[in-house]
Amino acid sequence: MSLTNQDLIELTAWRRRLHQYPEISNEEEATARAVVTFLDDTKPDEVLTGLGGHGVAVIYDSGRPGPTVLFRSELDALPIEELSGVPHSSLVPGKSHMCGHDGHTTILAALGRQFGRKRPAKGRAVLMFQPAEETGDGAAGVVADRRFGEIAPDFSFSLHNLPGIPFGEVRLKAGVVNCASRGMRIVLEGKTAHSSMPETGTSPMLAVSQLMPALAKLGGGAFTDDDFGMVTVTHAAMGEAVFGVAPGRAEVWATLRTRLDERMAGLCAAAEALAGRIAGEQGLTFKVDYHEIFVASMNAPSAVEHLRTALDQEGVKHSEESLPMRASEDFGIFGRSAPSAMLFLGAGERHPALHNPDYDFPDDLIPIGTRVFMRTARNLLG
Q1: Same domain (yes/no): 190, 172
Q2: Which phi and psi (to 5°) does residue 286 adopt?
Q3: pTM score, two decimals?
Q4: Annotated binding site for Mn(2+)
Q5: Which regions of 190-228 does DSSP assign to beta strands (E)?
Q6: Using an 8 Å Cβ cutoff, are 127 and 112 in contact?
Q7: What is the pLDDT along the chain (382 residues), one digit of tens a residue?
Q8: How far, in Å, CA of 66 to CA of 306, rounded?
Q9: CATH code, 245
Q10: Phi and psi for 215 in degrees, rounded to 5?
């Protein structure tokens, strides 16, 4: 159940190579190949590639009846220029592993090494290396793939490192742990004119100035309540960067966020009605589309209990503090097909925050995450 010193040396070196060659969402082809190659000598019983894009499922099958237990990590990086200064910094301009998915992937690879040495006594262990978590496309694509029906997990587990939490401690609770969210793009169309004769056109200027603060006021409810809603305006653009044109087109982007999926429908409807009313008052047409759609992540009580048992057995301190979080996570999709749970593994109270350009995954989390997941697997599969 433990990794050797040589294992840790090799796993750390591999994690740092992944870190140097990041691939953003839906581009993870080389990262997926690296996973397959790294685990080849563990002699998995089945390897599925191209799941939901570049996803990989590595399966260790006991050949005996029993549950199928899935552990999931993410393959993708972010479109952020790295400023950490570590020797293994990204070699790809404008792209970096600023969320620690390279570390999560390495933890699953460590599980693969151990399953290669000792298969489950019953059932199957599935290591799911998922693409495109950052855009919300990946989990949905994997689950929609017909081959996921062949996997049919009985339980699904995942983890995410979390700066701001004491190193090596875990945060875990049943129920909502991550909010539902989606990006809303509102396009306003009027009529362009010469800047010397703006009265001959229809400008979206007033509509944009009214829409942005009005959208932000749509949210409401305390974060502890199921009716919580939040709208954050993230981008606005109007016309071209020139002085001679009175613009006839504008865009406003906003992120809508709720604790529950059911609340999201109402928030979207309210935002669309608001955009329609303001556009109509200003003589504009409008259209709305949605991007980066994340469902709420709900931890199933039965899955949480398996993780809590493993944490206690491994002597890892845990609590429900800091949960749920406003941030979104597409692992919630897996919970629609089987009991699932995600834990959050502390990266240190002073560690740079996720998505910051100076972040780097703490390598000393690799054995901790591996121990917890391996204990969970052995408890369920023997």
Answers
A1: no
A2: -145, 160
A3: 0.94
A4: 99, 101, 134, 160, 355
A5: 193-194
A6: yes
A7: 689 999 999 999 999 999 999 999 999 999 999 999 999 999 999 999 999 999 999 999 999 999 999 999 999 999 999 999 999 999 999 999 999 999 999 999 999 999 999 999 999 999 999 999 999 999 999 999 999 999 999 999 999 999 999 999 999 999 999 999 999 999 999 999 999 999 999 999 999 999 999 999 998 888 989 999 999 999 999 999 999 999 999 999 999 999 999 999 999 999 999 999 999 999 999 999 999 999 999 999 999 999 999 999 999 999 999 999 999 999 999 999 999 999 999 999 999 999 999 999 999 999 999 999 999 999 999 9
A8: 16
A9: 3.30.70.360
A10: -60, -45
**Residues 306 and 338 both lie in one domain:** yes
Q: Are residues 142 and 205 in the same domain?
A: no
Token readout for 145 is 């793939």
| Tokens at 58, concatenated | 């590595």
Contact by Cβ (8 Å): 296, 178: yes
Q: Which two tokens stand for residue 111?
A: 């599980």
User: How many folded domains does the chain comprise?
Assistant: 2
Enter the tokens of residue 270: 């309210």
At which of 294, 325, 353 does a domain end?
A: 294
> Among residues 49, 120, 90, 32, which one has the least CA distance to residue 382?
120
Nearest to 374 by CA among 317, 307, 316: 307
Annotated binding site: 99, 101, 134, 160, 355
Which domain does 261 fall in, by range? 180-294
One domain, residues 198 and 162? no
